């Protein structure tokens, strides 16, 4: 009985072994082993070494992740594709169960040494270790990458700025005699391809203009493919949060010119506007990207308007201080009629001895009293006349200063109108230019 069970067990094991095919017997395994058995990835895959290997490149911008104006860096997410022909990786598909395409490890085959010249950071991309190879030896290497590249970013027209950043692909060591570059698609198709771009970000993709050129150097001539990525900023959020409040603040400051120049309330009003300018300037510095070599046009106009405000405020302060000093100096000149010491002055001017006063008759004394009263009235009238003349001189000086400062105030007002008009016209022109692209 045990012998019978042993025979049945051996028969079941043999049947299972025969029914389950071994991986080494598969056509894919045999094909992969045959292709890589004598393959050397250190050698450029051509039979004739004088022939150049042509690499076909394609680029599709997926998203703009970050625009660092201060450090002049652009971070984008792109879909990158490489296609080339490997003459040592071709086979007859009829001998391998009509297998026309397989995947091979990228580390096991030769790959071109193509880099992006504008790279300023390590490449961040998913680790895709395999590439597709078809029966004719064409290799396709597709992968998404995050590119952090150097770019000359300009913020002069912020928030209506348009940036043009290039991604240049070239070989490090292979000259154009060994490795040539070509576009995988038509140039017009590459330029207007926006299907994969995410439009939910702050930036909008305008075009990706491709160009082919030869870089000549002492080491040789190198083929280059350049993709000019043109993007523009969506300005609506900045128009609502920056431009419209700045125009309102300038209009309020413009209205302060309707207050009299010698009015102290004007100083208080302009000081409050200056505080508003300062707070808005702090918010503006946080919102506007900072660049060492370029200043935004909004910042220039805002600084000019702030300078006009400070100049007008300083003028009003000096005017009030000058008028206060003039009036104070006029008030310190006393009226002789209010002193009540005209008799003392008269006695000082015409001193008499007691013996002479005793010899005078009563009529003479009465006549002298009337004459002293008339002289006292005369001195009072002279004092009043001198005081009125002094006040008239002070008033005339005030009128002259007020006329001069009124003209200066009108000059500032017109300058403010010109700056505000230029500011509005420039913003409208930039917006129209931005919309036309």
From TrEMBL:
Keywords: Cell membrane, Disulfide bond, Glycoprotein, Ion channel, Ion transport, Ligand-gated ion channel, Membrane, Postsynaptic cell membrane, Receptor, Signal, Synapse, Transmembrane, Transmembrane helix, Transport. It catalyses: Ca(2+)(in) = Ca(2+)(out); Na(+)(in) = Na(+)(out); K(+)(in) = K(+)(out). Its main location: membrane. This is 5-hydroxytryptamine receptor 3B. The chain crosses the membrane at residues 236-255, 267-284, 296-324, 411-434. Residues 242-324 form the Neurotransmitter-gated ion-channel transmembrane domain. GO terms for molecular function: serotonin-gated monoatomic cation channel activity. The keyword Transcription does not apply. Residues 1-19 form the signal peptide. Forms serotonin (5-hydroxytryptamine/5-HT3)-activated cation-selective channel complexes, which when activated cause fast, depolarizing responses in neurons. It is found in: Postsynaptic cell membrane. CDD domains: LGIC_TM_5-HT3 (cd19063). One of its GO terms (cellular component) is serotonin-activated cation-selective channel complex. Residues 346-366 are annotated as: Disordered. The lineage of its organism: Eukaryota, Metazoa, Chordata, Craniata, Vertebrata. It comes from the Eukaryota. Residues 29-233 form the Neurotransmitter-gated ion-channel ligand-binding domain.
């Amino acid at each position: 009985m045990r012998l019978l069970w042993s025979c049945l067990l051996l028969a079941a094991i043999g049947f299972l072994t025969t029914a389950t095919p071994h991986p080494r017997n598969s056509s894919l395994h045999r094909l992969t082993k045959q292709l890589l058995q004598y393959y050397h990835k250190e050698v450029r895959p051509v039979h004739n070494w004088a022939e150049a290997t042509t690499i076909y490149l394609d680029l599709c911008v997926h998203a703009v992740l970050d625009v660092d104006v201060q450090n002049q860096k652009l971070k984008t997410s792109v879909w990158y594709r490489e296609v080339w022909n490997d003459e040592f990786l071709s086979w007859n598909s009829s001998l391998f169960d009509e297998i026309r395409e397989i995947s091979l490890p990228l580390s096991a085959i030769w790959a071109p040494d193509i880099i992006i010249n504008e790279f300023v950071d390590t490449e961040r991309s998913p680790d895709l270790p395999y590439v597709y190879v078809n029966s004719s030896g064409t290799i396709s290497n597709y992968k998404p990458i995050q590119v952090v590249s150097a770019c000359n970013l300009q913020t002069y027209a912020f928030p209506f700025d348009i940036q043009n950043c290039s991604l240049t692909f070239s070989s490090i060591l292979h000259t154009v005699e060994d490795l040539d570059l070509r576009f995988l698609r038509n140039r017009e198709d590459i330029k207007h391809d926006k299907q994969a771009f995410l439009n939910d970000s702050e930036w909008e993709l305008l075009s990706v203009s491709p160009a082919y050129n030869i870089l000549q150097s002492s080491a040789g001539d190198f083929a280059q493919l350049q993709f000019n990525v043109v993007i523009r900023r969506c300005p609506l959020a900045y128009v609502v949060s920056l431009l419209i409040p700045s125009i309102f603040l300038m209009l309020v400051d413009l209205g302060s010119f309707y207050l009299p120049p010698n009015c102290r309330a004007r100083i208080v009003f302009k000081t409050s506007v200056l505080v508003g300018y300062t707070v808005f300037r702090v918010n503006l510095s946080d919102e506007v990207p900072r660049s060492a070599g370029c200043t935004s046009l909004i910042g220039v106009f805002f600084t000019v308007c702030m300078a006009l405000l400070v100049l007008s405020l300083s003028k009003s302060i000096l005017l009030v201080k000058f008028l206060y000093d003039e009036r104070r100096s006029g008030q310190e000149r006393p009226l002789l009629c209010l002193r009540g010491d005209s008799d003392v002055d008269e006695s000082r001017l015409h001193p008499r001895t007691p013996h002479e006063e005793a010899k005078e008759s009563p009529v003479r004394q009465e006549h002298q009293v009337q004459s002293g009263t008339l002289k006292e009235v005369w001195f009072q009238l002279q004092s009043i006349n001198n005081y009125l003349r002094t006040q008239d001189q002070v008033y005339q000086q005030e009128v002259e200063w007020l006329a001069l400062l009124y003209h200066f105030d009108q000059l500032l007002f017109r300058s403010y109108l010109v700056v505000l008009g230029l500011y509005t016209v420039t913003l409208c022109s930039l917006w129209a230019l931005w919309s036309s692209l």
